[in-house]
User: Which sequence fits this backbone?
């Protein structure tokens, strides 16, 4: 029976799965703070509301209005400057508001079609820029990703790119450790299933590399979000965004 009220589009389906995964992450045995009595920190990814075009100061104000604990600023363009003085002002604003900032950027894999060498130069330098930014902001997280589904195609498949990204991560290990932060690689746009991301994290070193979990992206690789959660759970540092049924993004 074709009842239009019961038909779901792709965004609705992904929103349901993402929300289910997030709820399980909050309540289940894999969640941060699960069965430990610790408070689970909640926040949102600035990508969720990118259509507003807000920079870091406005995002911090909004996070304070929502009374969340954390704000993942998952790209470097959200800052009006990457100079030390500016970043320290952003850090001070967040501290006054009681908001934990988590820093991030895009691809740091030099062989991915997603990597913008014209903008960032060498991938190793881009990774170092992420680490320096995180350090100035007091962030213990540096979100980034490998690439997209297209990187699974061609000779060597996704593992050719995983190997190159591991090299970049190992090259900046000392900087990440000195900054007391973890580089949190996202399962992004169909690039890796959870087991492949776990392989990447282990190959680089789980002491300074973790995961940004995005249960919506799990379905992009035809992966059960609960399997994604089970495999990535022990490595999760932060969480990403979700789709809504009208095509916009919302925090969860």
Assistant:
């Amino acid at each position: 029976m074709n009842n239009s009220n019961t038909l779901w589009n792709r965004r609705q389906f992904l929103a349901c799965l993402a929300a289910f995964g997030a709820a399980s992450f909050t309540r289940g045995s894999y969640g941060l703070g699960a069965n430990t009595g610790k408070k689970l920190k909640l926040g949102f990814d600035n990508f969720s509301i990118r259509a507003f075009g807000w920079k870091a100061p406005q995002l911090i104000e909004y996070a304070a209005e929502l009374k969340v604990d954390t704000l993942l600023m998952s790209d470097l363009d959200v800052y009006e400057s990457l100079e030390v003085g500016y970043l320290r002002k952003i850090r001070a604003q967040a501290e006054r508001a009681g908001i934990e900032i988590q820093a991030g950027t895009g691809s740091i894999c030099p062989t991915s079609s997603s990597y913008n060498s014209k903008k960032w130069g060498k991938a190793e330098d881009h990774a170092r820029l992420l680490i320096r930014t995180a350090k100035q902001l007091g962030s213990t997280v540096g979100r980034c990703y490998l690439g997209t589904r297209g990187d699974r195609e061609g000779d060597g498949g996704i593992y050719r790119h995983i190997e190159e990204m591991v090299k970049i991560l190992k090259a900046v290990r000392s900087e990440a450790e000195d900054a007391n932060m973890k580089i949190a690689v996202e399962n992004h746009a169909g690039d890796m299933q959870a087991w492949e991301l776990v392989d990447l994290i282990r190959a680089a070193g789980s002491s300074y590399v973790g995961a940004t979990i995005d249960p919506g992206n799990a379905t992009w690789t035809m992966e059960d979000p609960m399997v994604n959660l089970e495999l990535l759970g022990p490595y999760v540092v932060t969480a990403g965004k979700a789709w809504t049924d009208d095509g916009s993004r919302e925090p969860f």
